[in-house]
Amino acid sequence: MKRVPSCNAEPTVVMAARVLCMLGLVLALVSSSSAEEYVGLSANQCAVPAKDRVDCGYPQVTPQECNNRGCCFDSKIPGVPWCFKPLQEAECTF
């Protein structure tokens, strides 16, 4: 009698590959929506002390909406503006 190979291992491998793929997508989305990204701004421009932050947003502004306004977004410090105006980079003139 000829033995038919078991198909039980294949669905497990396929499921594991799908889980890994979904995990990769979730990690990519989480890292791309980081509050530390400043579109068009340098990290130095957004290094504004909490006490010196000038509000640039509105309640429930998202990091993307804040950055689209040319502002910095940092939600790590409660009680201060999370969307705030960046520091102006000094231009050197000789």
TrEMBL record:
The GO biological-process annotations, alphabetized, read as:
maintenance of gastrointestinal epithelium; regulation of glucose metabolic process
InterPro entries documented for this protein:
P_trefoil_chordata, P_trefoil_CS, P_trefoil_dom, P_trefoil_dom_sf
Tell me which stretches of the chain form a coiled coil: none
Q: Name one Pfam family in it.
A: Trefoil
Which SMART domains does its entry note?
PD
Residues annotated as signal peptide: 1-35
Supply one GO CC term from the record: extracellular space
UniProtKB keywords: Cytoplasm, Disulfide bond, Extracellular matrix, Secreted, Signal
> Out of the domains of life, which is the source?
Eukaryota
The principal localisation class reads cytoplasm
Subunit record text: Monomer. Homodimer; disulfide-linked.
Q: What does this protein do?
A: Involved in the maintenance and repair of the intestinal mucosa. Promotes the mobility of epithelial cells in healing processes (motogen).
Instruction: Tell me what this protein is called.
Output: Trefoil factor 3
Write down the species.
Answer: Pongo abelii
- Give the organism's phylogenetic lineage: Eukaryota, Metazoa, Chordata, Craniata, Vertebrata
